[in-house]
Design a protein that fits this description.
Layout: E1 3-4, E2 9-10, H1 12-36, H2 48-57, H3 60-82, H4 87-141, E3 145-149, E4 155-158, H5 160-166, H6 170-173, H7 187-195, E5 203-211, E6 217-226, E7 237-243, H8 245-267, E8 270-276, E9 281-284, H9 286-292, E10 299-301, H10 314-318, E11 328-337, E12 343-355, E13 358-367, H11 369-408, H12 416-438, E14 445-446, H13 447-454, H14 456-460, E15 464-467, E16 472-473, H15 477-495, E17 504-511, E18 520-527, H16 540-545, E19 555-562, E20 565-572, E21 577-578
Parallel strand pairs: 15-17
Antiparallel strand pairs: 1-2, 3-4, 3-7, 5-6, 6-7, 8-9, 8-13, 9-10, 11-12, 12-13, 14-16, 16-21, 17-18, 18-20, 19-20
Helix pairs in contact: 1-2, 1-3, 2-3, 2-4, 3-4, 11-12, 12-15, 13-15
Catalytic activity: ATP + protein L-histidine = ADP + protein N-phospho-L-histidine
Pfam families: HWE_HK, PAS, PAS_3
Keywords: ATP-binding, Chromophore, Flavoprotein, FMN, Kinase, Membrane, Nucleotide-binding, Phosphoprotein, Photoreceptor protein, Receptor, Repeat, Sensory transduction, Transferase, Transmembrane, Transmembrane helix, Virulence
């Protein structure tokens, strides 16, 4: 604000000083004139309006100085005019001085309060302007799309992100209706929700499709907030746009993968499961509970499954590994007893992990019962086929053995009955050995079985001792070894210690010393025989036992006879035995 006097520009403060000075001079002039003309009795009161004006224009000290000047001039004029001062002059002067001081103080106090109020208002205005600036900065540069609209849905302000998101410029969007950005298929829903904005429902949000300026479609989460005062019509709408196209695509891809995974698990008859050992609960899919033969459930206590899982298999599931350094594979097969009493084999495959200091397992489950049954059935069929082939092979070999036995027994024209008896004896020995073998599932027998079968009556009478490890004789060697044992037993009964009630037979076998390729050494020892020297029959027995060092089975046979007994030793090679 400027005042021009004679060309120069004077400030407001100088103008106030000039006005105050003029008022003071005019008041002094009036006071002097009033005192000289005889109206001095009321002259002091005439100065009060001037003091008010000066106190309003100036600070308290100039007002006080003007008051004292009026009092001094008034008293001086009265003294000059009357020659003396009366009591009314002094009291009027004092009253004027007090009134002037009070007026100056009140104006000063009011001015201070007004200045303080103005400072507070200015600070608040500054804070509001700062907040508005920050809001505008945040509004313009936010990573989300922001817009304001009136109660009719017309856009009033949009930020840069909204422009970038939609492809429109700010001036193109301002004045447009919000529905301009909404996909046509979504407009009815959007309009219906927008009409529902009120004090009771001040906002809503939904995921919907929007259209850019070029016509392309994108997904966004749109949130509308009603910004009107309560119990009044809406004053405006605040709109937030968040582009969720990538998140939506990822969510749809994840959902599609889950559907494919569920389909694959269902097609493969697999169930998913998880064991939390902190809470001791098991959660699983519907297929998992169906595999266990239980109704579907979100979760079950872990200990509840102990009622259906086989006792021997419960530790595989009911307990966790005490020490695992990192995620480890978990692989177990458990037997589950269903409500009908049938046991099913269930495979649990997955991972074992530690999270937040607690163990857990998770993975898939599959019913292996049919697979196990098929595997066992196939193994049984293959085993049966092998046994049938072995039986056929043995039957075909049996005829060759019988033929060899017939040929080895010397025929005598003078004693046909003896020849027939010897032949029948050998055939019955073969029959006994054959029955012993076919009663065994493997179509083979052990040394102990063959020896115990031949010496059963004498072992029961404690006249025969049998010791040796478990050694199985395979292939056609079993029949030949049985013929050797039968020949030793027959010879002992007829000519050796078993024909004497006091005689003893010890049969033992074991692995030969190192360097013999793992041969089995078989020993037949007779003690306590007759006084006469035992006689070993010539012919068939000599051939079977290998008196010349070539036995019917094995090798390195040795036969030692003495007046009190007999010792026969035979070695069986690795090809003829199975440990």
């Amino acid at each position: 604000m400027r005042l021009r006097i004679g060309g120069p520009v004077l400030s407001d403060r100088l103008r106030q000083h000039l006005v105050s000075s003029a008022v003071l001079l005019a008041t002094l002039f009036i006071e002097m004139k009033s005192s000289l003309t005889g109206g001095g009795s009321a002259a002091f009161l005439e100065c009060v309006p001037a003091i008010v004006i000066i106190a309003f224009l100036e600070d308290r000290w100039p007002a006080m100085a003007a008051t004292f000047a009026m009092v001094a001039v008034g008293l001086a004029v009265r003294l000059a005019a009357n020659g003396q001062l009366v009591g009314d002059d002094l009291s009027g002067a004092i009253l004027l001085a007090l009134s002037g001081g009070m007026i100056a103080f009140l104006f000063h106090r009011s001015r201070q309060e007004l200045r303080s109020a103005l400072d507070v208002a200015e600070n608040r205005l500054t804070a509001i302007e700062t907040t508005e600036a920050r809001y505008r900065w945040a509004f313009e540069r936010a990573a989300l799309g922001f817009a304001t609209a009136n109660d009719r849905g017309e856009l009033l302000q949009v930020n840069m992100c909204m422009c970038s998101m939609s492809g429109y410029a700010q001036e193109e969007l301002v004045g447009q209706h919000i529905e301009t950005l909404v996909h046509p298929d979504e407009r009815d829903l959007f309009a219906r929700l927008g009409r529902g904005l009120s004090a009771e429902a001040p906002s809503f949000g939904l995921e919907m499709r929007l259209r850019r300026k070029d016509g392309t479609v994108f997904w966004a989460r749109v949130t509308l907030s009603w910004s009107g005062p309560e119990k009044q019509l809406p004053m405006g709408i605040f709109v937030v746009f968040e582009d969720i196209t990538e998140r939506r695509a990822a969510s749809e891809a994840l959902l599609s993968q889950k559907e494919w995974l569920d389909l694959a698990l269902l097609a493969g008859r697999l169930g998913t499961w998880r064991v939390d050992y902190k809470e001791r609960i098991v959660s699983g899919s519907d297929q998992f509970w169906e595999i266990l033969g239980l109704p579907p459930a979100a979760s079950r206590p872990l200990d509840e499954l102990s009622a259906i899982i086989h006792t021997a298999d419960w530790p595989k599931l009911g307990a966790h590994s005490e020490f695992i350094a990192a995620t480890a594979n978990y692989d177990a097969e458990v037997r589950v007893r269903r409500s009908d009493g049938q046991f099913r084999w269930i495979a649990l495959r997955g991972r074992e992990d530690i999270r937040d200091g607690y163990h857990q397992r998770f993975g898939i489950a599959a019913d292996l019962t049919e697979r196990r049954q098929t595997t066992l059935l196939r193994a049984a069929v293959r085993r049966q086929e092998r046994l049938i082939l072995e039986q056929r092979h043995r039957l075909s070999n049996l005829f060759a053995v019988i033929t060899a036995v017939v040929k080895m027994i010397p025929a005598s024209d003078q004693d046909i009955s003896k020849y027939r008896g010897d032949l029948l004896e050998r055939i019955r020995a073969l029959e006994s050995t054959h029955l012993l073998l076919i009663n065994n599932a493997e179509l083979s027998s052990t040394i102990r079985d063959i020896v115990a079968h031949a010496l059963r009556p004498y072992a029961e009478a404690h006249r025969a001792t049998i010791t040796g490890p478990h050694v199985r004789i395979v292939g056609g060697a079993a029949e030949s070894f049985a013929m050797v044992v039968h020949e030793l037993t027959t010879n002992s009964v007829k000519h050796g210690v078993l024909g004497n009630s006091q005689g003893q037979v010890e049969v033992r076998w074991g692995v030969a010393p190192e360097g013999s390729d793992g041969d089995i050494v078989f020993d037949w020892i007779e003690r306590g025989g007759r006084n006469a020297k035992p006689v070993l029959r010539k012919g068939f027995g000599s051939i079977v036992l290998g008196a010349d060092g070539t036995p019917l089975v094995g090798h390195s046979s040795k036969l030692e006879m003495s007046p009190g007994g007999l010792r026969y030793q035979l070695r069986l090679s690795q090809g003829e035995i199975q440990p």
